[in-house]
Amino acid sequence: MIDYCDILKNCKSICVVGISEKKYRDSHQIALFLKNAGYNVVGVNPNLNISDLQGIKIFKSFKDINEKIDIVNVFRRSEYIKEIIPEMIYLNPKVIWLQLGIVNDDARKAAEKAGIIFIQNRCIKIEYFNCFNF
């Protein structure tokens, strides 16, 4: 069984995949929430033409990230996960976390084969609140 609280207490760096500069998008709001909660947050979105979002470094590709990532938190539709799973595994995170509503069992199998904890269909912000009793 996955201990979400242990993960959120012990992991310090999070890569938000599919981060948006649009303030109304969940990926934008949750990335800023995580940053304000004290995590080192970076974002990946090849379609953004910015390199920084309110103190969050934005990268075009996983391969551009030159720091250790503990959690890869994904905001991409389920059908796109399989094509980016090799790049996520390349980062060698402790956890790949697919947000609420995102499920891909092929990606789960690939991540688990690589020794990476895989979480799907769960919101990292909700789990944070559950763990830290807000």
What's the story with the biggest beta sheet? 7 strands, mixed
Distance between the termini: 23 Å
Mean pLDDT: 95
Helix segment tally:
5
Number of strands: 7
Helix proportion range? 25-40%
Q: What's the CATH class label? A: Alpha Beta
Supply the CATH architecture.
Answer: 3-Layer(aba) Sandwich
Derived from helix and strand composition plus strand pairing, the structural class reads alpha/beta
Radius of gyration: 14 Å
What is the topological layout?
Blueprint: H1 4-10, E1 13-17, H2 26-36, E2 40-44, E3 52-53, E4 56-59, E5 71-74, H3 78-90, E6 95-98, H4 105-113, E7 117-119, H5 124-131
Parallel strand pairs: 1-2, 1-5, 2-4, 5-6, 6-7
Antiparallel strand pairs: 3-4
Helix pairs in contact: 3-4
Could you walk me through the main structural features you see in this protein, from its secondary elements to its overall organization?
The structure is a single chain. By secondary structure, this protein is α/β, with parallel strands linked by helices. Helix content is 36%, strand content 20%. The protein has 5 helices and 7 strands, in the order αβαββββαβαβα. Helix 3 (78-90) packs parallel to helix 4 (105-113). The radius of gyration is 14 Å and the shape is globular. The mean pLDDT is 95.
Give me a quick take on this structure.
This protein has 134 residues and is α/β, with parallel strands linked by helices.
Structural key phrases:
134 residues; alpha/beta; Rossmann fold
